[in-house]
Amino acid sequence: MSDAAETESSNRDVRRRVSKQLGRGNTTRAGMWFWEVDRVLLLLAMLLIAIGLVAVAAASPATARRYSDATHIMPAMHYFWRQLMWVCLSVPVLIGVSMLPITLARRLALIGAAFFLLLLALVPILGSEANGARRWIDLGVSDLQPSEFLKPFFIVATAWMLSFRAKDPELPVLFITGGVTAVVAVLLMLQPDFGQTIVFGTVWLILLTISGISALAIGGLIGTAIAGVVAAYLFYGTARTRIDNFLFPTKEAALADRYQVDMAHQTLSAGGLTGAGPGSGQVKFKLPEAHTDYIFSVIGEEFGLISCAVIVLLYAAIVIRVFMKMLDEEDAFRLLAASGLAAQFGVQAMINMAVNTGIAPSKGMTLPFISYGGSSMIALSIGYGLLLAFTRRNPYLKRSPYTGRWSKG
């Protein structure tokens, strides 16, 4: 046999072995995960993470210059290399969590919710202060933001409690979950973190709506939420300052919150439709927190408004795909958990982009998978991993068009 024939035969053997390993007959955990996981959702997450690395690379020189001084000059790509490190840690976490069985994923979320709720309560005592807020616990090598990790665990725990309504509608789960949400809101407002409070409250309302509570109850809760915002304006100084600076800007306010919002809008629109080009943006050097809260504006300046529109579509695609996938889900817990996690992902992205476009006042909230941040990246990876775990489907089961039940095809 000639060398060419031997090489071709060897290649066929390799392809056959790989095909067998990745085939639907592979019953190992990794093999089953490959066929069960929603690969479109996984691909969308990887796209956002890749876009995030490019965006942080674009924003890093501006942030490095802002935080450099006479005694310490930061390398221009300092934040990019750190973000690359966080991505290398976060992606395996995302994949690992997505491989968990449903019962183990639920157990992890319940334990995580209790643990990070305790840490959130300790933030006013142990937390370190930055930019006038006490939201982080200093671990030495990095800062931990308990509220970021609490979000996905809180959603799954709330979904678990609300799922009991499917068995007994008389259970007082609305009041129990409402009480827990109120405790979280109070702890967040002590930091202060009004933006995260809105996220927790909004996702809770979405979960209640999906769980099937009456329209009258939903109307009452929306009215209560509006009353809560009014009360926050009247009695909560941070909320009043942010709202006043946004709606009734004065010269003094323009030097603080309004300056950030205005600069974000200028940076976003500076690149036009197609952008100034990678590394060519100049307005970003005047923008505070270009690598975190206002990275969407940096993308607009360097890569254009078309790129911003693509990012919006990617977030929308994730939320829509999850909700469409859950339309025929019979398990109340999986329905609520997956929908709640997708809603949190979409709400957080929407708030961040609203701030960058000048529609909403500054909130100090990251853009999921794109903004720089260790706590944010790992917490989002855990949440997205849970989302992938709850949306997994067994490829060997098919739903009957007559009974609606799943069975072997």
Number of domains: 1
What does the radius of gyration come to?
A: 23 Å
Spatial gap, N to C terminus = 44 Å
Give me the secondary-structure category: mainly alpha
The average pLDDT is 82
In percent, how much strand structure appears in the residues? under 5%
The strand count comes to: 5
State the low-pLDDT regions, or none. none
Order of helices and strands: HHHHHEEEHHHHHHHHHHEE
Per DSSP, the total helix count is 15
Largest sheet: 3 strands, antiparallel
- Strands side by side in the biggest sheet: 1-2-3
- The shape, in one word, is globular
**Into which percent range does the helicity of residues fall?**
55-70%
Key descriptive features of the protein:
Probable peptidoglycan glycosyltransferase FtsW; two-stranded antiparallel sheet; cell division; cell cycle; mainly alpha; lipid-linked peptidoglycan transporter activity; single chain; globular; 3-stranded antiparallel β-sheet; 15 helices; 409 residues; 5 strands; transmembrane
